[in-house]
Design a protein that fits this description.
Length: about 200
């Protein structure tokens, strides 16, 4: 629904206001998670599975572990959560996907955003981004939705990824442009941290 696009828009806006210490040093945590997992010698999983956030059924997971020697999903997800939490605790990170809103729910300065969009719009975006035919893009959208829903349900006490109460804001990117969403989120960052003077200190020159 535009998570990576929103992350890029926020990064650009933060860079444009770099004179304010609050907006300095932000990083997007997306493919960086994949890189760290793949570099860990204890994690045996394909780059494709990490990038797609695929989630297998219990039996599928068991078979891939036994037959192919792939690291069980629970271990991989624990590693993902560890990376997200360690970075989020330091601060100034934009986490894209991977149940980041739930992993970081307990951190007081977090802002949790859910993006939704009409399926046709999402299919068209994937067709354009990955140069795929419509049928293949449609299949990927359906599979990704089901996979993410299963992941959240399995690891977060049967929570529903579509429950709006899990997020601070929900935006429909079929009707609200990404730049407008970025503006709202940026204002929330400012408002939520206004009582944290250290974040607004003058930059070191």
């Amino acid at each position: 629904a535009g998570g990576r696009t929103l992350a890029e828009a926020l990064s650009e806006r933060f860079s444009a206001y770099s004179a304010d210490a609050l907006y300095q040093g932000w990083q997007v945590l997306d493919r960086e998670i994949c890189r760290r997992i793949l570099e860990d010698p204890r994690m045996k999983i394909s780059a494709d599975a990490i990038l797609k956030e695929s989630f297998m059924t219990g039996m599928e997971d068991y078979l891939t572990e036994v037959i192919a020697g792939i690291t069980p999903q629970i271990a991989v997800f624990h590693k993902v959560a560890e990376i997200i939490l360690s970075c989020a605790r330091v601060g100034k990170v934009i986490v894209v996907g991977r149940a980041g809103a739930l992993v970081t729910r307990g951190l007081p300065l977090g802002i949790h955003v859910r993006l939704i969009a009409d399926k046709l719009d999402r299919v068209q975006r994937i067709m354009k981004r990955d140069s795929l035919p419509r049928a293949e893009a449609d299949r990927l959208v359906t599979e990704n939705d089901e996979s993410r829903s299963r992941l959240v349900s399995a690891y977060f006490s049967h929570k529903d990824i579509n429950n709006p109460m899990l997020y601070d804001m929900v935006f429909n990117t079929s009707t609200v442009p990404i730049p407008e969403i970025a503006s709202v989120v940026m204002r929330m960052v400012k408002d939520k941290t206004k009582h944290q003077p250290a974040l607004h200190a003058e930059p070191v020159r």
